[in-house]
Every structure is written in structure tokens, then in C-alpha cells.
Write a structure and sequence with these properties.
With about 290 residues, this protein is an alpha+beta fold. The protein has seven helices and 18 strands. It folds into three domains: about 5-60 and about 205-225, 2-Layer Sandwich (Pseudouridine synthase); about 65-200, Pseudouridine synthase, CATH 3.30.2350.10; about 230-285, Archaeosine Trna-guanine Transglycosylase, Chain: A, domain 4. The strands form five sheets. It has a six-stranded antiparallel beta sheet.
Length: about 290
């Protein structure tokens, strides 16, 4: 089964547990996802099966949309409620309730959390450090340092703020950690904080309305491959050329393809090849099916 599925991941379940369940439900061996979600996070995990796992690299950099709730009255080692929370005193809560305003938070977001920014990923994450997850190193009591990196916040919408809860919808580049945004916001405000919920509501052009719960999953829930790769996929049914590409040969010809970009040749049923079209030559890059 070669396809893509958008899974409504339940809270408390890891991305790898979702893949395990999908293998059992769909009876597939090859399966992979386009980006890890924290166990706390819910919704929108894009998963490929069969030969289409070879196309995962083309969606790993897709932008993501999240709806998150940040509580400004406590803190936890994992930056969320997945580890023990230490709460502020009642006196501190009353103080912050008086001093933190929606207008102040909006100003902070505009000045610090829009466009390209630098952030440090949380230590409680699946990022690899010398081949081992940062989270696993922390749990082994290792002293690790996370490297800062540039990410981009494309848009944000503060839905509501009633102390201590702030609800924000945010559209970000791949690799952006919402927990790190919340961490930096807390530093600016001078208060403790932690995430109480995190929902990935969209991946690039796809949103939650296209997703499927595991209990409803079957082959009919497969996404339209042409819809996923609308800017890369081209109908191509010349079997002579396809066979030459299969043998690793370059093919000369005048085609209405974009140049200097990896594109997919679709025979009407499946994606057969990834090729690059340069100076009237098709260069085979990857056989898919």
C-alpha cells in the first residue's frame, strides 16, 4: 500500500506508537512520519506507507500550525504538564494577575515572536545529540547543552488571555518548538509557565478536517497524492521514457516541466520517479515504484 495519511494523533501517545498501530491496522511494513509530535500534542501527523516513504523528505520541511494553551502560574522540567509542575505562590499569582495584560503580551509577540527568530530547543525533546535523543540523555542525568537555531514564525493569533491561561494559534516553520516560544515568553514576562495543551492543526496545505482517527483508519482514508504534491507532480505516461529512467539513463526532450527542481512523474496511478529537468534533459534522481 503506497500512500499518505493524515492522522489525528491522540494525546499521551508517541508518534512511534501511532506507527505501530497503523502497521497493525493497515497490514503494512514500510511506514514513516514527516515529523515527531510530543506525547502531549494531538492531531495532524502526516504518515507515508509503502514506497511513498521515499517521498517523506519532500514534506519534512513543510510549515506547521498549532493551537496551544500556556499557563503562567507554574513550571515543569519538560516545559509542559508531562512532568511534575511547581506552582507559584498565591501571592505571586495575584501579583502577576495584576501586572500581566493582553496588550503587554501582544506587544511582546510583535517584537519577539514574528518573522525569523533564534530559539534554543528544549532538552526534553527527540532531537539527537551524538545519535541519542536529548530527552534520553536528560533522563540519564547527563549535562547537555542545546544549540540555538533560526526558525520562522509566519503568523500568530492570540485567541484569549485570562490569567493564568494564554491561548495562541501560531503558524511556524518546520523545526520550531512551541515550548521554546513559551519559555522565552515567560522569561520576558519574568514569570513561570508551562504548556497545558498543544494541538497541531495543520501541515502546510492540510488541516485537521482532513485527518483520520486511528479507530476509523482504513485504506479509503488515504490522501490524494496529487493534492499533497500539487506543485511537484506531473502526469507522464510515456513508457519508453519511463523504462529508460528505470535503467538510470538521462532522457533528452522538450517538456513543459519546471527546470532545476525535483519533480514527480505520475503515470495516473502512482508516482514512478523523481527526476530533475535541466537544459532539456530529464535526470533520474529516485525510483519510487
Amino acid at each position: 500500500m503506497d500512500g499518505f495519511f493524515l492522522i489525528d494523533k491522540p494525546t499521551g501517545q508517541t508518534s512511534f506508537q501511532v506507527l505501530r498501530d497503523m502497521r497493525r491496522i493497515l497490514w503494512v511494513k514500510k511506514i514513516w512520519h514527516s515529523g515527531t509530535l510530543d506525547p502531549l500534542a494531538t492531531w495532524c501527523l502526516l504518515v507515508a506507507t509503502g514506497a511513498y516513504t521515499k517521498l517523506i523528505t519532500f514534506v519534512e520541511k513543510d510549515t506547521k500550525k498549532y493551537l496551544t494553551t500556556i499557563s503562567l502560574d507554574g513550571s515543569s522540567p519538560s516545559y509542559d504538564n508531562d512532568s511534575e509542575i511547581s506552582f507559584l505562590s498565591q501571592q505571586k499569582k495575584e501579583e502577576y494577575k495584576k501586572n500581566i495584560s493582553l496588550q503587554g503580551i501582544e506587544k511582546i509577540f510583535l517584537e519577539n515572536f514574528f518573522g525569523k527568530i533564534t530559539q534554543i530547543p528544549p532538552k526534553y525533546s527527540a532531537l539527537k545529540i551524538n545519535g541519542k535523543r536529548a530527552l534520553d540523555r536528560v533522563k540519564s542525568w547527563e549535562d547537555i547543552q542545546m544549540k540555538a537555531r533560526e526558525v520562522e514564525i509566519l503568523s500568530y493569533d492570540i485567541k484569549s488571555f485570562i490569567y493564568p491561561q494564554l491561548i495562541v494559534e501560531i503558524h511556524v516553520s518546520a523545526g520550531t518548538y512551541i515550548r521554546s516560544i513559551a519559555h522565552d515568553l515567560g522569561d520576558i514576562l519574568g514569570t513561570w509557565w508551562y504548556l497545558t495543551s498543544l494541538r497541531r492543526t495543520g501541515i502546510e496545505k492540510h488541516d485537521i478536517r482532513e485527518s483520520t482517527r486511528l479507530e476509523d483508519l482504513d485504506e479509503s482514508k488515504m490522501l490524494d497524492i496529487q493534492g499533497i504534491f500539487w506543485d511537484r507532480i506531473f502526469l507522464f505516461q510515456d513508457e519508453v521514457v519511463l523504462r529508460r529512467l528505470n535503467d538510470g539513463q538521462r532522457v533528452w526532450g522538450e517538456y513543459d516541466f519546471p527546470e532545476n527542481k525535483e519533480i514527480f512523474l505520475f503515470d495516473g496511478n502512482v508516482v514512478r520517479y523523481v527526476v530533475e529537468y535541466k537544459e532539456s534533459v530529464l535526470h533520474p534522481r529516485k525510483k519510487i515504484v
